Amino acid sequence: MRIGLRLAGRTTMQGTLRFASLAILAATLPAASASAQVPFTSAEGGYSISFPAEPRETVETKPEAKIFSYIVRQDDAIYGSSHVEYNSELDVEAELQSNAVNFAEAVKAPVTSRRRTQFTAASGEKRPELEFTYESDKLAGKGIVIVSGRRSIMAAAFALKPNDRRAAIDQFLQSFTLAR
Predict the structure, then answer these.
(1) Cα separations (Å) of 179 from 13, 19, 31, 46, 126?
(2) Residue 153 falls within a domain, yes or no?
(3) Is 157 within a domain?
């Protein structure tokens, strides 16, 4: 399975530094045993989400951005969140769309649906959001991407087939809150 971050030139630089690092981490993590939900807050990313176990953190510094990734592998499912702090403003629509597509390509599961919405932060401010699903013969999952200024946030989860973890994936994504 080919999984990794992709960088490109200025035209799409912000649109191609992706959260595929979540996928690569997932492939290397040992599975955690079932447990209660573990609330997680990323002070740097300005969001909270409940993982099924304590997430593993990685931080990567690139010339154009800093990437923070958090991931848990539990049984036959992978749960992850990530945010990228870019050095310059983002093209919101390009960032939303390319994050979903590039993540799905990284896990080799085409995007099967997209829904553009607005996510409401704790302050009441609305932020651009893209909800997406992806599926292949090996896995199925969902994700969200939220973009604001120089920050792009993603939360995504998937289960290996034939296992159906839709309820757990929905619970994970529904626990996402945006503080700022």
Answers:
(1) 27, 20, 30, 5, 12
(2) yes
(3) yes
The number of folded domains in the chain is: 1
Question: pLDDT by residue (tens digit) across 25-50?
Answer: 444 444 444 557 899 999 889 999 99
Tell me if 39 sits within 8 A of 52, measured CB to CB. Answer: no
Burial class (CB in 10 A: 0-12, 13-18, 19+), 48: middle
Count of alpha carbons within 13 Å of 44, Cβ hemisphere only? 14
In CATH, what number is assigned to the domain containing residue 30? 3.40.1000
- The token duo for 156 is 């995504």
Write the pLDDT tens digit of every residue in 144-156: 999 988 999 999 9
Query: Is beta strand 56-62 parallel, antiparallel or unpaired with respect to 65-74?
Result: antiparallel
Number of residues assigned to the chain: 180
